[in-house]
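#struct-pred

JT: dropping the chains for the assembly here, can someone run the whole complex?
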Amino acid sequence: MLDAARHMFDSLPNRPGVGYKPQHFSDILADPTPVEWLEIHAENYMGDGGRPLAQLRALAERFAFSVHGVGLSIGGESPLNPEHLARLKHLVNWLNPARFSEHLAWSTHETHFLNDLLPMPYTQATLDRVVEHIDQVQEIVGRRMLLENPSSYLAFAESTFEEVDFLAEIAKRTGCGLLLDVNNVFVSATNQKTDPRAYIDAFALKHVGEIHLGGHDEDEDDTGAPLLIDSHGKEVIDPVWALYEYTIEKTGPLPTLIEWDNDVPDWPELAAEAARAAKILDKVTV
Amino acid sequence: MSVDQTQFTDALLNPKLSVPKGLVDPEGRPAGKRFSVYRNNVAVSLTEVLIGAFPVIYRLVGDDFFRAMAGVYLRKHPPTSALMMFYGDEMPGFLEEFEPAENLGYLPDVARLEIALRQSYHGEDVPPIQPDILQTLPVDRLMRAKLLFAPTVRLVRSRWPIHGIWLANTQPDAPKPEMKAENVLVTRPEFDPLVTLLVPGAGLFIDSLTKGKTFGEAYDLAAEKVESFDLSALLGVLLSSAAITKITEGDSQ
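RK: done, full complex below.
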């Protein structure tokens, strides 16, 4: 293992960041403008060494980092995987990121990891379980985490909580913060035929420590109703930018991430998305 | 109607099962195609992981074959960890049993080589020994010494021409593979794994060292089997590719 990265960044700036992709390493070091911080998927940096960790170490000298987990399965019925928690703790101790976040979702059942963020019903029983898991994560990793709202394609007939209330209750009981993915809000609201602005209005905005923006795909369900799919494979669409602006007019400027994980573009195209976020953030700051 | 994660997982991995009751659309009707989004995400994302992990196998069998094979693999061997960088470790054994590939006997060893490359890429960084340490050690002490290899070193021994196959599918203008047994050494001088075709006897020599034999014992085993065993060429490869991290003398570990 390489030496621990330097401890320089205690918080993410209220500015644009991007999901880090190794192919952008040289571009970012040459001129990151307007990107001011980077996010990584924790699981991609759980190897023992080599180029991935060496790149992180070099970048951590200059940029604040956010570690975003996709594999903890916080919403799982199974207990959290102790080996995975230990790997996460190791990575967080080594990189010392300004933020650590995970999802309101599950991905592991018994010994099977399914490599997707799967949905869960919102009931008293699932709330208690998520709270227990987050308490455990925060204790073992040794820091406060942010929990992200999911994209959903279907609903559970058994749910008794609205998602916004479920998330607010988790934040209240665990002390965790929330990561508000504005694209997920748009995708879920379209798929559930609800109003995305009403979701933002009802959201516990005071707990939000970071915002995500990304692209999605369009499909239709069996009845021909629009079915949006959170794909992170293209640019953010205008209605999502408008919803973002609506959100940060309420919250004030927040660290804002552009997520582009599939069909990753060249750096200038990604930087242009970040520039669009910067422009909106500037408007709110003034 | 509640849906537990066992029902959800079973239906995800088995498209013949119906969508669990209790998963609904906004009007409360059965979720139908909405559930298929998750089915599709799981199957496609794991297939993409396997394509990334086995680019040579993918080239050898083609897109349609690979995707169909991946669909069988991911249901037989779903990941057991969230580290996608290592998903696919059961592929060699799977390919040995996979009937549609029974005429492609070299595939399991090609998969072993691709796994070795990936493990090497993510292996721990350990500094190598200075090359002159080996050169200045008196021969009698060298013969009693044991060598420790870097965590990024992998040996793949095959009765197939896996080096030739690998070259032909990764390098432009590579010669056509010739039907012969080939042993390959994977090393990682810095960040990019290096694939080296070993001279006859070298596979046995390295394998013996890895199993704790002394330099002298490993040499004798290799020279006995292969009269022309060229140790100096092999040592050149090991030293120039940062493969040796420690020499211990005598019986100490």
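JT: nice. Confidence is low (pLDDT under 50) at residues 1-7 of chain A. Chain A touches chain B through 54 residues (CB under 8 Å).
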